[in-house]
Amino acid sequence: MLPLLLTLSCHPGKPGAPPGGDDTAGGDDTAGGDDTAGGDDTAGGDGTAAASGPRLGLLQFHLVHNLDDDSCVSRGDCFLDQEETQDVAGWITQLDANANAPVLHWDRGVPWSAFAVPAPEGQDPVAFYEARLDPELRAWIQAYGAWFTQAGRGYLALSVLDGTRQGLAPELLADGSLQALAGACPDLGPGATFQAADGTDFVLGDAWVRWVGFMAAELHPDQLGLAVEANLVQGACPSSWPSLVQLYHSTYDQVRPQVGDQVQLFATLSLPPLLGYDSGCRADLAFTSCDTEPPAPAALDPDACFPGDPTALDELAEGGRMDILALSFYPEGLEMALPGVDDARIRIWMEGTDPSGACDAQARLPGWVDPLATLDRLGWQGPVALAETSARSCPTWSWFDDGATRAWIELPGEDAGQVGWLSAITSPADGFVFVNNGFLYDYAPLGGWVVSDGVTDPTMYNLFNTWAGSGLYEADGTAKPALATWQAALGG
């Protein structure tokens, strides 16, 4: 039997320390107040970075759950929410108070049924599709549209891919649930046909352009992502990659005249594969028993770790169809100690041992080698931005199972690493047009019971736990050290 509760200490003595208590629901959301960002524009509307630093935004996710232990099962009230739906206006106020540019990162499924058919000739397409949307979803979108309009600019990214980046985005149903429309690695070309949840067949390229055009008309962004982490398909589904490139080109060509030349169009790209990162550039981690001090790892060679692989960028950007290099990058994925951290360790508890006790093995991670310093290997000459990023301030849990070995892994995280990362990426010297942090609030890692009881699969468990502890505030609204770094970059 796997452990039902995994506990970690993030900020000792604070109610926001995950996972535990009821703080995972976000408390009374006290962030904001006098800690407003506001201020003047930190990056030019033409996509060039201003001398004072990048525009700073926050992905709108407000992840709350009560899955840190299994007590919700007996009560029958288990939940995990990724978006704020109860007080959208209040949530937007908090985002606005801690950023200087609006952001909407749509990665939650697409209402395909609503956009499966064209608007009747002579009818306003925006009004037509508004009427086809679920009223609550329509109001949610329009709340963000009001924020974008007030700010006069903003960043909107829309994902045509599912969360695994191996298939088509599922359909978002009226009750908020998702329905898959295709299996892994489908044809994603503009002429591919799928069946929406209401039974309507639709041509992917047509429906996608309708959806993108509708969202652009509702929000009027000045940066518009037509796909999210598109290059992950190249590695995960090589057979789907050429068709996705065709879909992106077709979408770019049709959306460009709709939004005008002043809007930057692009697909966001995951940084590690773009730089050709391979963890084989370092020696295997030197694990020791937990009562033995592990050796310090050897320094890494940036040439070996990041040789550069601009293939995906070059193919997507063909014909001048990439107005900005917008990167998705979560630095802990490199398994290195973050900037400002001298000793970061992975700890392992083999299946059957109690993670509340001493670990079975540990290893030190190698020191930081900055991939951002190797971007010149891509040959890109245009503006660059961090479309989504974050770093943890506390450890989190991962479940490992390769068929032969099953174990709980504690992945490192600490305040110094989060502060170090935010300090590095918000520096004017890096020249980013904008930087979007992944979360405003922390959330607790999911409890191990969700894997042991089959509530979710290990892949989704590990994915959600990757970003636990990545907010600027603890879940109860307590400011974290990283907040001061963020606000200093905002000029607040």
Which structural class do you get from the secondary structure elements?
Answer: alpha/beta
Which spans have pLDDT < 50 for at least 5 consecutive residues?
Answer: 1-9, 11-50
Shape: globular
Count the helices. How many? Answer: 15
Spatial order of the strands forming the largest sheet = 1-19-16-13-12
The first-to-last residue Cα distance is 50 Å
> Average pLDDT, to the nearest integer?
89
Question: What summary fits the major beta sheet?
Answer: 5 strands, parallel
Q: Number of DSSP strands?
A: 19
* Helicity level: 25-40%
Give me the Rg, rounded.
Answer: 22 Å
Summed up, the domain count is: 2
What proportion of the residues form beta strands (DSSP E)?
Answer: 5-15%
